[in-house]
Amino acid sequence: YSDAISISGELKSMFNPNPIIQVFPIAENQFCYVIDDFLNDPSSCVELAVTHRADFREAASNAYPGIELPMSQEVNQALINFFSMYINRRFGIRKIKGSYSRLSMVTKKPEQLMPCQWICHRDGVTVPADERMLASVLYLFKDESLGGTSIYRPTADQKRTASLMHDANSMSATSFSGKYGITPGFMTESNAWFEKVLSIGARWNRMVIYDSMVFHSGDILRPEAMTDNPRTGRLSLNGFYRGRRSLV
Description:
Blueprint: E1 21-27, E2 30-35, H1 42-51, E3 66-70, H2 73-86, E4 93-106, E5 131-139, E6 149-154, H3 158-168, H4 173-180, E7 194-200, E8 207-211, E9 215-218, E10 235-245
Antiparallel strand pairs: 1-2, 2-8, 3-4, 4-10, 5-8, 5-10, 6-7, 6-9
């Protein structure tokens, strides 16, 4: 990557000063939070993506099915400040110690996906027990049919689920499909291994926030509509926030 991209202007004025936070239950003591009208000027993020379209890259460090553009530390810090004010306590986080954010666009076709991209996933599986990682996605597209985000729960026990996840990252497509009965394509519904428990539809300037350790996946219902054009594609701002758990 080239240097991370900065968003100009007063960062303190980036966000809606009076956010309305909706709460959606996932499981016992587990919740997803949704904030509509998150940015004061979401179109500026789209224009930023258009300006820096040539700087988007496919990242080798994760399995995102598309291209990404990392944001600057000042943007990360602005998000940390927002989370510290409105979100941390809801997840029992005392303090966020680091964050990472990126503009992202889904661009892969179903036949180009790796087995680990055929199923839902978790982020931050190596985070220590005294810490927690949160994830957020901000939708920056107006065509709601491009898909939101769904959350799943495993239907198998922990050992079998762990084996499935390991094999998804290590087996060939043919071998994985033959062993688990999962066919290539984006995951949008329950299958023999995971049950969909919550689906949050996409909406322009909507942010969805959840614990990164819940199984989740983008609802790519129209893969033929995925494009690398920031004005018409499934552009989002994705964030990850690692923090220390509260003592009580």
